[in-house]
Predict the structure.
Amino acid sequence: MSLLVKNIGTLIGIDESHREWVEGKAMSEIGTIENAWLLTDGCRIADYGTMDSVPSIEGCEVLDAEGGWLFPSFCDSHTHLVWAGSRDQEFLDKLNGLSYEEIAKRGGGILNSADRLHDTSEDELYRQAMERVEEIIANGTGLVEIKSGYGLTLEDELKMLRVIRRISQTSPIAVRATFLGAHAVGRAYAGRQQEYVDYVCRDMLPAVAEQGIAQFVDVFCDRGFFTVEQTAQIMKEAAKYGIRAKIHANELAVSGGVEVGVEHNALSVDHLESMGDEQIAALKGSKTMPTMLPGCAFFLGISYPPARKMIEGGLPVALASDFNPGTAPSGNMRFVVALASIKMKMTPAEAINAATLNSAYAMGESRDYGSITRGKVANFFITKPMPSLAYIAYAHQTPIIRHIVLNGEHIK
Ligand code: NIG
Ligand code: FE
């Protein structure tokens, strides 16, 4: 059924040039129409215009936006939202002075989550993850990438990927899955990192590819985790199955992850808290989307990625939440947008472009998601009336989302 939204105060995020992403100076421009309407045709956006030309269509559902703003749904290109239990104990350790790396070295961190995941049934894991999915939908996300990486054995990685597939089959949110076997060295391989990487390549990747259960592969390429060589090995192996990479790079140190990602045509390199001029130069002209996860820098108290330098250097940037139990226990993209503005000095328009179109690109989905464009999937949310675009970052704790439409369906 069609849905006609009337009396939209400002329709924002319009893109008529079908761009794959937006970069540099253009990131500060965002297409808008004031006093607008929008029409869907089943699950796609059919048309839009100004209220003086509102169509009258029989038999369609009508939604009065009452002057609220209509945004394309957020696209969150980096999460680990399937996990078991919580890591609040480590949160206390952190408050008492231990760093993320120190906690990991003591066998906590990712390995702690892997132990819990192993002991949790698939149904229970799904139930816990769905609570988080419902939370992010309520906060405006319409397309999300979810990683495995708390399994660290073939069986448990597949268990996670099945839970991700079940979420995608049972929730209105669109889901893309990433296989992150190389998140940490599984306990059975302690002290034998290279053997673990060989296991990922020899046993895990073929099974994942055969089941068609993940669209992307990821490696935690950083100090204390996997090396540049091991990252290249996994990316090359995945490429044999046509699986493209999204790489965790430069969270804890300038790891070489950006360069190896670009060299092997990764779809995105994510984190980038540690970035120098050389890494920015390496990204220039590539098809690899630099993706920033400011919720992680906030939670760990580490430096934020140099967003201004990247944008002024002509790069595109994407924003994502990193929703995970260890470094970013929030999947709220409004908070991510606010952090991008407050901590990285991104303008609200840049932050919205980064959290929609560019983040959709970082999942290979900007042809169908990430902007208000005729023919794209009708994923959007409508706010209360706002005085300006800046208000969405400024009033970041105010519950301003009134309506949510996913796949053309008015779900809230
Ligand atoms: O993106 N950096 C690696 N992975 C996650 C953290 C995972 C965890 O600590 O559970 C991240 O920050
Ligand atoms: Fe992450």
